[in-house]
Amino acid sequence: MIADQTFTTKRAAEAWEHQQKEALHSGDFVSPQQTRTPVLEVAAEFLAARAGQIAPHTWRTDRDNLAALPPRFAARPIGSVSEADVLGLLTDLLSMRAHSTVSRMRTTLSALWTWAVRERWTPTNPVRGVRMPSGSVQAHDHGPLTGPALAMMLDAQRARSPRDAHITEWLSLTGLRWSELRALRVADLQDVPFPAVQVLRAQSDGYAEKAPKSARGRRTVPLVARAHEIAQAWASGKGPAAYLATSATGLQLRGSYFRRAVAWTKTSPDHTIHDLRHYAASSWLRQGIPINQVAAWLGDDPRTVLKVYAHVLGEAQDIEALRRLNASLPSHSPDNASGDDATGEDKPERARKSWSDQEKLGGDGGI
């Protein structure tokens, strides 16, 4: 006897026996004893088996996600978890965590169950048929990083560490990821045919150097005058192989030290370092840089840029529509029922001038 189970009716027992025999002959048999193993124990086996086979960053993400599972879910027998259980877990997590964080949890769970099915811990993967819930998403109430917010952030950081505030400013102008900035070398800085940096590698804190996370691998990012000025100051007195941006002691940048130097939680409480990348991309699009060019500078697929920044691309149409409305509608101001003021200038013309003045002042709200 390979497996046993108790049933209330003979018919149910015979059906189960038939199912087990078919699975045994087809090679899909899973021992009921295996399916009773707690999720947490299978997760430990999963992590041990994957160590050294996947990228260290991915392995650490899986480890942290599995460690964050609610104790009651982690104690469940792996074979007892259904699609409804997975959906309930994701929905509950969305009430406490960001959508992107929960989405990564789903990815980890799917990988765990895919491995568990292959290793005969359970016969099915309940995660595969569950999509990310659309409701109860914890949204960031601070919204996108705006120009005024960035200016306030930089002023506060300069008061604490002018040197490190340059890092924040440079990321907002170049759109580089933190891992890409800390891996830049002086030799990656170019002046001809135009000021730019070559993004050839990336290195997250605590991990080995690798190729950048980019749709096209290496890429060239042009530097506006201010970004080029900062980069030249960083490169001054260094050899070609030296890190371009470094700490105050000349060592490679580390996120924890940088955040402490600029008191990030106080000077930038509503935003992450990655928000600086979004700010740069949105600024480029608002200035009319084509999507394909922005995607190339970011190292992203144009379709991703179109999806993420669709709201920015739609602003131009709204601005033009509002300009036309202001230009065509008559004024109903009680100060001048006739529609003419003391200077003889009609209201629509003044509205056109007012909107033009706003455009000249750079009315670029936020990302």
Automatic annotation (TrEMBL):
<keyword id="KW-0233">DNA recombination</keyword>
<comment type="similarity">
    <text>Belongs to the 'phage' integrase family.</text>
</comment>
<dbReference type="InterPro" id="IPR011010">
    <property type="entry name" value="DNA_brk_join_enz"/>
</dbReference>
<dbReference type="Pfam" id="PF00589">
    <property type="entry name" value="Phage_integrase"/>
</dbReference>
<dbReference type="InterPro" id="IPR044068">
    <property type="entry name" value="CB"/>
</dbReference>
<dbReference type="InterPro" id="IPR050808">
    <property type="entry name" value="Phage_Integrase"/>
</dbReference>
<keyword id="KW-0229">DNA integration</keyword>
<feature type="compositionally biased region" description="Basic and acidic residues">
    <location>
        <begin position="344"/>
        <end position="367"/>
    </location>
</feature>
<dbReference type="InterPro" id="IPR013762">
    <property type="entry name" value="Integrase-like_cat_sf"/>
</dbReference>
<feature type="domain" description="Tyr recombinase">
    <location>
        <begin position="140"/>
        <end position="323"/>
    </location>
</feature>
<dbReference type="Pfam" id="PF22022">
    <property type="entry name" value="Phage_int_M"/>
</dbReference>
<dbReference type="InterPro" id="IPR002104">
    <property type="entry name" value="Integrase_catalytic"/>
</dbReference>
<keyword id="KW-0238">DNA-binding</keyword>
<feature type="domain" description="Core-binding (CB)">
    <location>
        <begin position="37"/>
        <end position="117"/>
    </location>
</feature>
<dbReference type="InterPro" id="IPR010998">
    <property type="entry name" value="Integrase_recombinase_N"/>
</dbReference>
<dbReference type="InterPro" id="IPR053876">
    <property type="entry name" value="Phage_int_M"/>
</dbReference>
<feature type="region of interest" description="Disordered">
    <location>
        <begin position="326"/>
        <end position="367"/>
    </location>
</feature>
<protein>
    <submittedName>
        <fullName>Site-specific integrase</fullName>
    </submittedName>
</protein>
